[in-house]
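thread: overnight batch results

M.L. [08:02]
morning all. the overnight job finished for the chain we discussed friday. pasting input first so we're all looking at the same thing
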Amino acid sequence: MSWMFGVIGSSVNSDSISRCRSVHPEALGTCMQGGKYYIAAGGPAHTCALSHPGMHTNCEAFSITLGCPVLDDESGFSFLASGDWDDIAERDDIIGVLEGHFVHLSFVHDTFTIRNDRLGLRTLHWCETPHEVVISSRLDWIALYLGGLTIDYSALGSRWMIFNQLTHDSTVAGAKRLGPAGRLSIGRTGVTSSFSPFSPTARDTCRPVEIIDRLGRTVGQAVDGPLRISLGLSGGIDSRVLLSFLLASGKKNFSTHTFGDAADPDVAIPLAIARREGFAHAVHDTPLTDAPSIITLVSDYVAQTNLIEPASTALRLRHYAGLESSKFMLMDGGFGEVARRQYLNRLAMNGAKTIRTRNVEALYGTLRAGRGGLFNADVERVMQSGVHEEILHMLDTMPDVSKVGIENYLDLWAVRTRLPNYSSDAQASLDATIANFMPFAQSGFIDAVFALPVSYRKNGRLFREILSHN
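M.L. [08:03]
and the structure it wrote out:
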């Protein structure tokens, strides 16, 4: 992943710096000052932007940006580079509306300020000790650096027993995690943090043509970015909608790709579409390598993704080697389901009553995932109790279901829990390989979706209209 790791505090010395370097890989940039801080960052250049590449000591100000932040406002659409942050790093009015996904650290006036995107697609972990604060984009690195930390099974429960975690608590005791639209400040006066769960921006009803125009502009202007767009194309409707906008733009500087065996329908269908429409399409089916390399790949994936997927999912990552990260930006239809009313449908029929009566057991039964029983009975009780607490937290913090309607309630539940607790770890893993952008996983698009009548979100009606329109 594009990553950052560091220690801030009075105990920073040559020993702690040596321990830091034993945890993280080779860095693109390092800033340090004895007795104050050591911060390192690295990864692909297009997902790790540094104000000070290389090694520096006694810096009075510097910044690090992980991910792919996007400025999308009246002035236009642009992917931000490291130099673009100089004018906006301290401006809440701009950072609060940035699209894309990012974690941004700035060090100014002896204070570290860390911000992330509105949806929580990238995050940061930290742990406070009596003499230092350890920060990292990877939770396992904090555990490696400090040693002796234990698993918080209460927080881990939702990552194993239901579809995904519901809160933003860390699964390691003593560590913390930055939630969506988060702000972490570390300075002379101590450590403060805050975050704000996504809520749709209040607006009048949105018409389908407004969303069509918005997506068309976003996709069309993304093609004009610094890297060539390569769309991950499958037989599904979400990626085909994005393809329709790329074709409608009339621009030729994009291509598409699929991963896997040519006999797979999700590979064969895109290939047939590409031949019919006459655009560049590549199929990548990277062979399996030797067993030690696979074990290393899988082990690292498991460590950085915190139980979101089976370990075998790591094998898909090898296909990204076929895309040259210095030349391409990946685009895909991730989270398009939110515009198709696809989440939590098991609760859609009679869920409003279950929610109003705060029937935690019924909600737990609906959300439960069928994973194996790897834990003993005592640990399972702790984990299940933690799941119940998280469900109660959601019931306490979500809006009144009778006022927003069950469909909007369930979609908001998905946005608040799925993106920061599932997609965030997957996003960090992908950022290790290539710059990427998901037009459907943007706060402005999701704002518009919530203002769209529910009837357009059911049965793929909106996307079918887009395909017919383009």
